[in-house]
Amino acid sequence: MSSISQNDLSNLDDGSKREIMTFLESENSKQKVQMSIHQFTNLCFKNCISNVQNADLSSQEEQCLNSCVNRFLDTNIRIVKGLQSIQ
Amino acid sequence: MALTSIFGGSSAPSGKPAASSPADIKAQLKTQIAQELAVANATELVNKVTENCFEKCLNAPYANSQDNCVDQCLAKYMRSWNAISKAYIARIQQASVNGEI
Q1: Of chain A's two ends, which shows fewer C-beta atoms within 10 Å, N or C?
Q2: Where are the domains of chain A?
């Protein structure tokens, strides 16, 4: 794919620039969610999945993954509140 | 969020000729951004699955490969990815309904 020149970009009208900005903002927030899922899967897989004899998740494993995400987020919220209260 | 989305499964017509009209430039810009994000996500996934399945399946002194275990592990990792994704998105939605975010 040919890349877009600096010239092409500066020739965009304001409406198009705004549209691209909106697109970037939405891709950016989607990407943040994606990266969090990568991080949580990495962490929770290590802690919840003890063997890979079976490719299917057991109900215990699934419950563990679910709780792992929720406790991580609870911890995150608590840390933020704790830091807010000491500043 | 469907797992396929991280591979940029949707609209990504590649190899377009040089863009000229503003609409073309806009479309090309969006495609390029989406593709780069898809590559970044795929790379991240490959790295994380490799790390985890290497830890689960292989042991020093690494005399044998463990193809079977690695295949099972990959399948299990993807299922875990989906379960985590569902749990996280449910949590975000709940927080959004409660007006917390």
Answers
A1: C
A2: 7-85
State whether CATH 1.10.287.810 applies to domain A7-85. yes
First to last CA, chain A: 50
In chain B, residues with a C-beta closer than 8 Å to the C-beta of A34 are 1, 6, 41
Among the partner-chain residues A4, A13, A30, the one whose CB lies closest to the CB of B29 is A4
ipTM of the complex model: 0.88
Q: For residue B17, what pLDDT is reported?
A: 52
In degrees and rounded to multiples of 5, residue A16 shows phi and psi of -65, -40
Residue of A nearest to B95 (CA): A73
Q: Which amino acid is at A21?
A: M
Interface test with B, best of A3, A45, A48, A68 (most B CBs within 10 A): A45
pLDDT of A2 above 90: no
Q: Tens digit of pLDDT for each residue in B23-35?
A: 888 999 999 999 9
Is B79 among the domain residues?
yes
Q: Does B36 touch chain A (CB under 8 A)?
A: no
- pTM across the whole model: 0.84
The secondary element (H helix, E strand) that includes residue B95 is helix B67-97
Put simply, the answer to whether A57 touches B81 (Cβ < 8 Å) is no
In this predicted model, what pLDDT tens digit does every residue of B33-75 receive, in sequence order?
999 999 999 999 999 999 999 999 999 999 999 999 999 999 9
